[in-house]
Amino acid sequence: MEQQYLVEGANLVIASVLLLATGRYLNTKIDLLSRLNIPMAVTGGLLCSSLLTILYLYFNIRVDFDLELRNLLLLTFFSTIGLSAKLSVMASGGRTLVLLLCFAIVLLIFQDIAGIGIALAFDVNPAYGLFAGSISFAGGHGTSIAWGTAAEEAGLAGAGTLGIACATFGLVAGGLIGGPMGGYMIKKHGLASQHTVPQHYESIAEAADEDPEYPLENAFSTLLVLALCVGLGHNLNDWLIIQGVALPQFLTAMLIGIVITNIIDYCKFNLHTHSINRSGEISLHLFLAMSLMSVQLWTLANSIGLLLLVLIVQMMIIVLLAVYVVFRFVGKDYDAAIIASGFMGLGLGATPVAMANMQALTARYGPSTKAFIVVPMIGAFFIDLSNAVVINLFSSLPMMGDGF
C-alpha cells in the first residue's frame, strides 16, 4: 500500500533551507562540483529528488509538495531584478540586448526544427516535436502546461505530459552545463571581471558602508518596497487580464519594480541595494531548491531513452550557439562569458536557472553588471513573446494538420 506525505508551508521552507545547506556543503567538499560551478540549489535539489525517487520505487513512499510559497519567491526575485533596473543602466546594454534577442529567436527556431525532426524520425505526429522543442525548453513548465492544455483539447493526447517531462530534463540540464561552460570560456580566454574585487567581497564592503545605526530601517524599507512590487504587480496583472492582455505575474511585478526604482532615483533617494540583492539571492535559491526537490523523476522512467535523445540534441544546439555565436558576438570578454552561461540556463531551463548559473560564476570570478541586466530582460520580457510567435508559425505549417 502506498504511503503519501505532503510537505507544505513552514515545513517546505525548512526543507528547502536544509537542502541549500547540504548543497553548499557538498559543493565545498567535492572538488568536481566546485570546479564545475554547479549552483548549490541544483546540488541539493537533485539529491533530494533522487532520494525521494528511491523511496517511491523501493519502499512505496510518495512525498508531494505544496508549492504555493514557491510562486511568491519567484515574484520576490523578479521584483528585486526590477528594482535593480535603472534606465540609465539598462540603456548601457542596448546593443548587447538586441543581439541577445536575435540569438534567442534563432535558438527558438532551431529548437523547434530539432524537435520536429526527431518526431518525424520516429514516425510521430510532428506537432509533438514542438513539445520537444521551444515549448518545453525555452518555455519551461508554465509554457508546457499552457500549450499542452490547448494541444490536448485539439486531440494531441499526452502533449502536456511530454512537454513537462522535457521541461524537467531541461531545467536540470540548464543548471548543470551553464556554470561549467561559462567557467571553461573564462579560463580558456584568460578573462577577468572589470571590477577589482570578487562580488562577495564587494557586497561585504557595501554592507559596511550602510549606516550601522539603522539596520532594521534598511530591512523594513526593503520589505516595504518588495511588498509594493508584489502587491501592485498582482493588481496590474488582474487589470491587464480584464483588458484582454495576459502577462506572467512575475513580469508585472518586475515592471512595478522598474517604475519604483526609477522614480526613487529621479527623486534623488536611495534604495538599500545590498538588502535588495540579498533578498533576491535568497528568493532565487529557495525557488530553485523547491523546484528541483519536487521533480518526480520516476514519472520519466518509461520514456527515458527518447527524452535523453531529445535532451542531448537540444544541449548540443544551445552549447554550440552560446559558445561559438553568443560569446563571440556580444564581446568575447568576461561579460560575454557570463551572458553565454546565462543564455544556456535560459534556453534549456528558465530565467532563475540562468541567474543561478551567473551567480555561481560571479561569486567565484567577480561581478558582471551587464549580464545581470540583459539576461533577465530577455528572459522576462522578450523570450516568451518571441516564443509564442515562433510556436504559432510552426503550428500553422501544413504538416501540423489543423494546429492547436
From TrEMBL:
Quote the InterPro entries the UniProt record gives.
GltS (IPR004445)
Topology class, membrane = Multi-pass membrane protein
Any coiled-coil ranges, and where?
none
Predominant localisation class = membrane
GO cellular component assignments: plasma membrane
Keywords on record? Amino-acid transport, Cell inner membrane, Cell membrane, Ion transport, Membrane, Sodium, Sodium transport, Symport, Transmembrane, Transmembrane helix, Transport
The entry's localization annotation reads: Cell inner membrane
Signal sequence annotation = none
Classify the source by domain of life: Bacteria
What Gene Ontology molecular function terms does this protein carry? glutamate:sodium symporter activity
Looking at the UniProt entry, the stretches that span the membrane are 6-26, 38-59, 71-89, 96-122, 128-147, 154-177, 240-261, 282-300, 306-327, 334-351, 371-394
Q: Which GO terms describe its biological process?
A: L-glutamate transmembrane transport
**Pfam name, any one:** Glt_symporter
Family that this chain belongs to: Belongs to the glutamate:Na(+) symporter (ESS) (TC 2.A.27) family.
What does this gene product do?
Catalyzes the sodium-dependent transport of glutamate.
Name of the protein? Sodium/glutamate symporter
**Species whose genome carries this gene:** Oceanicoccus sagamiensis
